[in-house]
Design brief:
Layout: E1 3-6, E2 11-18, E3 21-28, H1 31-47, H2 57-71, H3 74-87, H4 101-111, H5 117-136, H6 163-172, H7 175-187, H8 191-196
Antiparallel strand pairs: 1-2, 2-3
Helix pairs in contact: 2-3, 2-5
């Protein structure tokens, strides 16, 4: 086992030769993860399923977007594509095995002042799905996002107005607004649905 620490990228890596051909992998947070990845790579070589070229993050993202278009809705796939292009395009041309948890954390921390924790956790889930799909397809061996903790979210309960507050709003509402509010209260439908009622 040839596992070593890469000072330039601050991560663990492995390197070995098989039939005089060198094989490498890096981007691991722990020595144990690198050793496990090396063992998996050797097993894949023996079975003939080893991928010699390392995919970029863009290639992994494209695979995930194809999966979203097939198994989810095209609208959701378009949203994910927009978010990836807007916030994670710096990772597109980077080899997937050299993306560390630190790189992803720096991007998310830069967004921390502009986005809510709920939104940041949504981005984290998108990245997690991309890396997990790469692992399932035997394209990569490690998911750097799994080393990052989710951002803490406030558990503040939603404000549900009491009857007295609702009555005060009804008193100052126009007749059309009053009819709309009473319709929503009595049917318990969402505001978007209530607007579509004729």
């Amino acid at each position: 086992m040839s596992v070593f620490w890469r000072k330039d990228r601050k991560c663990w890596a492995y390197e070995f030769q098989h039939k005089k051909q060198p094989y490498r992998g890096s981007g691991f947070q722990t020595k144990k993860a690198a050793a496990r990845a090396e063992a998996e790579a050797r097993d894949l070589l023996r079975s003939g399923k080893f991928r010699t070229s390392i995919p970029t993050f863009r290639e992994l993202a494209v695979d995930d977007l194809k999966k979203l278009s097939t198994y989810h809705t095209q609208a959701w796939a378009n949203q994910v594509q927009w978010k990836l292009n807007r916030y994670f395009n710096a990772l597109f041309n980077v080899d997937a095995d050299s993306i560390t948890a630190g790189k992803i954390q720096r991007i998310l921390l830069d967004l921390n002042s502009k986005k809510k924790p709920t939104t940041l956790n949504e981005y984290r889930k998108i990245l997690n799905a991309i890396f997990n799909l790469g692992i399932r397809n035997n394209l990569i061996t490690d998911n750097p996002i799994r080393h990052l903790q989710p951002f803490p979210e406030d558990d503040t309960p939603k404000y549900i107005p009491p009857q007295a507050d609702f009555s005060k709003v009804l008193q100052v509402a126009t007749p059309e607004q009053r009819a709309h509010l009473l319709f929503m209260k009595n049917t318990m439908c969402r505001i978007g649905t209530s607007r579509n009622v004729t």
